[in-house]
Amino acid sequence: MQDLFETFGDLGINPFYLEKVKTICVKTGMREARDAWEVLKAVCQDVLDAHPSALKPDGEIRRSGSYGLYINQPPPQRSSKNHRLLKAATSSAGNLAWLGYEFDDAGDVHKSIWFHSENPKKREHLFAKVTKSFPRSEKTQVGGDLFVIVLPNDDDQHNDFEWFERALGCAIA
């Protein structure tokens, strides 16, 4: 019976597929990019109920850099409550967040979420919320854009799906 469920998961049939995705942990380089994409897409669809048009892939497979996806503004019609909550916590224009994997020449990979913030007060509020569960989080400014970067704790033992789910959950709580 387990073989049948695994086959359904391999074929992309929900909920079997979601169970398979929840076990993925990207750890070594970006050879696992397909797995990374599946995790990121599943998290956005499960946590935010984000329409595929609200997701935009970002990154290339190369020696160092990043691979992830942007969460765009929710569509005016048919947007989920969580997607609207993320918009309220981050930005009313442009991308709401980038979530994905950052990696270096040595092949070390870490998960991160960059929440875009349109003003300092919103950024401070978001930073206060996420640092309760993710104390390594940082605030930064790139050009004129403000961000809260959520990073895994040093002792993090969660699989990738659970980690992204928890981090997004902190932002929309």
Could you say how many structural domains there are in total?
A: 1
Q: Beta fraction of the residues?
A: 15-25%
Just name the CATH architecture: 2-Layer Sandwich
Helix/strand-derived category reads alpha+beta
What about the largest sheet? 6 strands, antiparallel
Q: What is the rounded Rg?
A: 16 Å
**Separate helix tally:** 6
Q: What are the low-pLDDT stretches, counting only 5+ consecutive residues below 50?
A: none
**Class in CATH?**
Alpha Beta
Please give the share of residues in helix.
25-40%
Distance between the termini: 38 Å
Order of helices and strands: HHHEEHEEHEEH
What features would you describe in this structure?
- Helix content is 37%, strand content 23%.
- The termini are far apart.
- Helix 3 runs parallel beside helix 6.
- The chain has one domain: 2-Layer Sandwich (Yope Regulator, Chain: A).
- With 173 residues, the chain is of the alpha+beta class.
- The model has no long low-confidence stretch (mean pLDDT 81).
- The chain is globular and about 35 Å long.
- It has a six-stranded antiparallel sheet, with helices on one face.
Keywords:
173 residues; Yope Regulator, Chain: A; globular
